[in-house]
Amino acid sequence: MNKGFTLIEMVVVVAVIGALFLLTIPNVSLVLDLFLEKGCQAQLKVIDTALIEYRLMQDEEAQSIEDLVDAELISEAQTTCQTQLISIEDGKATLN
Fold this sequence. Notes:
By secondary structure, this protein is an alpha+beta fold. It has one domain. It has 2 helices and 3 strands; from the N terminus they run ααβββ. The chain has a 3-stranded antiparallel sheet with strand order 1-2-3, covered by helices on one side. The radius of gyration is 25 Å and the shape is rod-shaped.
């Protein structure tokens, strides 16, 4: 008797693995979206903290995000989150 797998057994195994893979793709994309959203929220908190530090150092409110960059409280890379620009409105950092 020959030992090994039949073609039918191999097709079934590949089909099960493919189905499991297709079931995980939506979950991975949801986790990635949540990860990016939380990252932007954390970045806005960093900007808000830099606004407070700017106010303490300069005794005035920052008028724009460039004021924080010029004061070297944040870097140029921190002025965007994903593809959105961060701006300052009413003393708080917001996404455009």
